[in-house]
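Hi all, posting the design record for the shared folder.

TITLE: backbone redesign
STEP: 1 of 1
STRUCTURE INPUT:
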């Protein structure tokens, strides 16, 4: 999981991140996980990749909404990303 920082470069801890996710989103994410695993089990690599990209972008959008665009800034630190939010 990428490390998420606030606007003062303080990392959010696990508990703070968990508060960002509502029950409905958790159910949606779990359903997405099942679809990804099913595609992998069927060796449908292209479908698994597409589902994973969609899952990543959806969760990025959830974090942006939860933290607020101004508070997030370039805070999603992913190794090799240069501090930028990833997009495909």
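Okay, here is what came back for every position:
SEQUENCE:
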């Amino acid at each position: 999981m990428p490390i998420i920082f606030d606007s003062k470069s303080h990392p959010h801890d696990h508990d703070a991140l968990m508060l960002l996710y509502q029950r409905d989103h958790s159910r949606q994410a779990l359903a997405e996980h099942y679809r990804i695993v099913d595609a992998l089990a069927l060796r449908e690599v292209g479908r698994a990749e597409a589902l994973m990209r969609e899952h990543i972008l959806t969760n990025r959008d959830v974090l942006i909404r939860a933290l607020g665009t101004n508070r997030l800034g370039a805070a999603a630190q992913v190794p090799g990303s240069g501090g930028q939010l990833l997009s495909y």
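COMMENT: Residues 3-77 form one domain.
Let me know if anyone wants the other runs.
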